Structures are given as C-alpha cells and as structure tokens.
Amino acid sequence: MDSYTSSSDMSAGMAGAIFGAFFIPCLIIWVIVVIGSWKVYTKAGKPGWASIIPIYNIIVLLEIIGKPIWWIIMLLIPCANIIFGIWMINLLSKSFGKSEGFTIGLIIFPFIFYPILGFGSATYLGPSAKEAQGATPFNPNDYRDPFNNQNPPPQNY
C-alpha cells in the first residue's frame, strides 16, 4: 500500500510540474498582451481597463477602428469570425499608421507586437475608415449618381 501512495504522489507531482510548465508561461504571455492592449486603448483615447472586460473590449475596439457595433454579430458566426477578427486587427494597425506586415505580427506574435504598438512611437491617427485615410466622408446631400452625369435636384431639409 505504501508503494501505491508513493507512485500516486509522484504522478500528482509530475502533473503539477507539467501544469506549471505550461501555465506559468501562458500567464506571463497573457499579462504582456493585456499590458500592451491596455496601452493601445489608452493611446486611442479610450479607458485602458476596457481592454480586459469581455465583449466590452470588442465594442471599444470597434469604436477605435471606426466600425459599427453590429460587427459583434459577425464574430459569433463560425468561419466569419476568423475573417472579421483578422480584419479588425488589420484596421487596428492601420489606425496607428502600420502596414499589413504589422497586422501579421499582431496575429502571430501578439505578446511582442501589442507592446510595440502600445509603448512604441506609433500614434493613433483615428479610425481606419475611409474618412480617416484622407477621403471625404459620405454626405447624402452631395450624392452624385455614377450612372448620370447631371447633378441631382437640390434637397431642402
């Protein structure tokens, strides 16, 4: 009976060691990503604590990148969530003036690139929507029909 106890103690100790070997590095990486994303949200003029609240962090991220709230629904659809998640990360890097290569870094190595984005020299340029990239925002009163060269009649509101 004594050999059974020592063997179960040894297997429990090995399980604890394996758990610690995986848990502690994951915890360290998670803390680094949280600190980096906290700083990214702060740079964008949003509260840093918003980056750690589930669902609310996505709402605030959508505000940062200039996209509508209904995108959350797209993140609930399998396969579409991958596309929209990558798209959101790309728009985040564009909002800070970074390229698609930086987006790939944010996806593959977030524990390196979020702190670079948060603590580096990148500044928040505004939402990555067309309005922030130099194009004029959509004005319904200034609409021009692409199939008709004549101006529409003026609208009085």
UniProtKB/TrEMBL annotation:
The keyword Transmembrane helix applies. Residues 133-157 are annotated as: Disordered. Coiled coil: none annotated. InterPro entries: DUF5684. The chain crosses the membrane at residues 12-35, 47-65, 71-92, 104-125. The keyword Cell membrane does not apply. This is Signal peptidase I. It comes from Mucilaginibacter gossypii. The lineage of its organism: Bacteria, Pseudomonadati, Bacteroidota, Sphingobacteriia, Sphingobacteriales.
